[in-house]
Amino acid sequence: MKEYRFRAKDLKAYIVRFFEHFGLAEENAAIVADVLVTADLRGVHSHGIGRLHRYYGNRLRAGLIDPKAALHLIKETSATLCFDAGNGMGQLAGYRAMQACIDKARDVGVALATVRNSNHFGIAGYYAMMALEHDMIGISLTNSQPLIAPTYGRTRILGTNPIAVAVPAGKDDSYVLDMATSVVPMGKIAFYEEKGEVIPFGWGMDRTGSLTRDPHAVQDGGCLLPLGGTDEMRGYKGYGLALLVDILSGILSGAAYGRNIGSPGSVEGAPVNIGHFFMAIRVNAFRPIEQFKADMDLLIQQLKTAPKTVGHDRIFVHGEKEFERMKAYRRDGIPIIAPVFHGLCQDGETAGVPFDVKPIALKNSEV
Amino acid sequence: MKEYRFRAKDLKAYIVRFFEHFGLAEENAAIVADVLVTADLRGVHSHGIGRLHRYYGNRLRAGLIDPKAALHLIKETSATLCFDAGNGMGQLAGYRAMQACIDKARDVGVALATVRNSNHFGIAGYYAMMALEHDMIGISLTNSQPLIAPTYGRTRILGTNPIAVAVPAGKDDSYVLDMATSVVPMGKIAFYEEKGEVIPFGWGMDRTGSLTRDPHAVQDGGCLLPLGGTDEMRGYKGYGLALLVDILSGILSGAAYGRNIGSPGSVEGAPVNIGHFFMAIRVNAFRPIEQFKADMDLLIQQLKTAPKTVGHDRIFVHGEKEFERMKAYRRDGIPIIAPVFHGLCQDGETAGVPFDVKPIALKNSEV
């Protein structure tokens, strides 16, 4: 597929203007822009600029997200924070709540923050990774619109509720897990339909509750399966993890949960009232950071130097592929496929913020 | 298979005598006994009295576990604790570290504890569930002997490193997730071999790294697959979770990790230096506990009343089956299969603590 390459800073500048147009303060627009472009830099295009209109612009225009909302602290102890985002942008809530966690963990070694009354916050990994430069472990969870069926169920009750954890290492890249608790996200199912291919058995079910290989049947009233997939493959564990994320993000925070969460792509209905959960752990509350990082490197080396299966010459640590992509995209530009580019142009006109960013000349178009 | 039924309190009394014989103080022996019998009461017989000799008695006798060890506090903040178990019984370390977490969370809302230099601690869920009566959320993790291959690897690097989380509910039973991060534990593979059956594709690989349906090939130098299973089914997520548990339990605590962890069933070599991680979250640091529990009940109701797949008339919440089993086993006795019973008799003689517990008359042998 034809793709254009853009400089990260050019996309960021456009996104800042875009959100300023919709009433965000410049400082806040810059935070949201950084979260979105970081997703594209890491190769998670499903949570990058491609969602600018559908998840954010359209909803701001419809009055379903408050561009001026401030994060309110509802309750606090020396190690915990309970926030209400006032139906503002999820990225702002996530950024500020995680920052507050990090500040508290500096004092007492660990801190938790919940956020209620928020919106889609982009990649969960962004907030977890904020802990890294402070030599802390970061955790970030969020609930989301229902798409997963519980084991033995056939309707959408739980979101693909991601778990993101970032852990600093020494010479090696940090460990960054950022995973949906379904086998795959719905976007992956749509991608198979676009390609005209069937999906592997165990990714989804149709509206009658039968496992299906037809990507359309999953999207058309069917469900995603939780991580693990079928009962035989212990899908109830993924179901348990999706439920756990909903409990910590939705119930502990006082946000919506389960079937009650609205779609972030809808321009009708009420605010979605999404909930988030953040945690920061200061490593040297437990061990000297140098020892910790040295052991991280040794464990990573155990993994990377282990014998491989036939057809593979490399064992990856979580986040490693994304760090490599980031390096390549910083050098060669962020790839944006033609339909997304054209969407940005078209929707930019409608929104009153024309997408006037120029693609850069490519040195290395196959990256 | 022929099975005997025993009263929980009779088994407990025997286990207390057993550990006293090996030098544990009575108070400590009672804690270990409660952890082991609770596993049997919940139906997790792989972590109950059946492991009395192999994981504990034989190692105490070989001098590989210190029966008199005390838990030492190495480092502390108002919300964190770093312990060294002095190569004592894992159950004592787990019980006391979790208790200390709960005490701190009472003050500051959340607390974490790590433990290094410990041993196999039985079911992870026991320690997580200790939080429930305090209206707290409990989390318990431990690393363990290497059995899982990382994605694209074909050797055992990571343990089946369990994740246990307990969350209080209102009218409904608590949510208690207690899951290995492999698809299934090695004991399940052995169970298929004993039955003379093949295992489902995706549970394990043989020593060459090929997926296999032969349970013997997995046990004989093969590997377990992480939750998710194959790459297509996103086994790298289970691999990421197993790795995360090792980082939090092993590296953050300063214990052994990865390939360096010894087998708890061996009577040779050095202490295993297993690490644990515990967390307690006081719910009312975030929301009034009554509101939280009411929402837990509503989410559980959403799940339980949802339409079912063909052939199923019930959707379960994590821990529900175990709570029901506990009720039945308290009423009808704990079932112990004949080979385990005969092992207890034989090994009890050798150890100098004859297994003299009498089975009870059965009212309801088919439970």
Topology record:
The structure is a homodimer of 367-residue chains.
Chain A: E1 3-6, H1 8-21, H2 26-41, H3 52-61, E2 72-76, E3 80-84, H4 90-108, E4 110-118, H5 124-129, E5 136-142, E6 163-167, E7 175-179, H6 186-195, E8 204-205, H7 215-219, E9 223-224, H8 235-251, E10 274-282, H9 289-304, H10 320-332, E11 334-337, H11 338-351
Parallel strand pairs in A: 3-4
Antiparallel strand pairs in A: 1-11, 2-3, 4-10, 5-6, 5-10, 6-7, 8-9
Helix pairs in contact in A: 1-2, 3-11
Characterization of this structure:
The structure is a homodimer of 367-residue chains. Chain A is built from eleven helices and eleven strands. Chain A is an alpha+beta fold and 367 residues long. Chain A folds into three domains: 1-61 and 333-367, Malate/L-lactate/L-sulpholactate dehydrogenase, four-helix barrel (Hypothetical Oxidoreductase Yiak, Chain: A, domain 1, Orthogonal Bundle), CATH 1.10.1530.10; 71-182 and 232-319, Malate/L-lactate/L-sulpholactate dehydrogenase, NADPH binding domain (Ribosomal Protein S8, Chain: A, domain 1), CATH 3.30.1370.60; 184-224, Wheat Germ Agglutinin (Isolectin 2), domain 1. In chain A, strands 2-3-4-10-5-6-7 form a seven-stranded mixed beta sheet, with helices on both faces. Chain A has a two-stranded antiparallel sheet with strand order 1-11. The longest helix of chain A has 19 residues, at 90-108. The relative contact order of chain A is 0.17.
- Major sheet description of chain A: 7 strands, mixed
How many independent structural domains of chain A? 3
Please identify the oligomeric state: homodimer
Low-pLDDT runs of 5+ residues of chain A are 363-367
Which homologous superfamily in CATH is the superfamily of the largest domain in chain A? Malate/L-lactate/L-sulpholactate dehydrogenase, NADPH binding domain
Shape designation of chain A: globular
Helical residues, percent of chain A: 25-40%
Largest interface: A-B, 84 and 83 residues
Q: Find the count of extended strands of chain A (DSSP E, 2+ residues).
A: 11
Q: Radius of gyration of chain A, Cα only, in angstroms?
A: 20 Å
Question: How many DSSP helices of chain A?
Answer: 11
Q: What is the distance, rounded to the nearest whole angstrom, between the alpha carbons of the first and last residues of chain A?
A: 13 Å
Class from secondary-structure proportions of chain A: alpha+beta
Order of strands in the sheet with the most strands of chain A? 2-3-4-10-5-6-7
Mean pLDDT level of chain A: 96
**CATH fold category name of the largest domain in chain A:** Ribosomal Protein S8, Chain: A, domain 1
Measured by DSSP, the beta-strand proportion of chain A falls in 15-25%
Topology of chain A as a string of helices (H) and strands (E): EHHHEEHEHEEEHEHEHEHHEH
The CATH C-level class name of the largest domain in chain A: Alpha Beta
CATH architecture of the largest domain in chain A: 2-Layer Sandwich
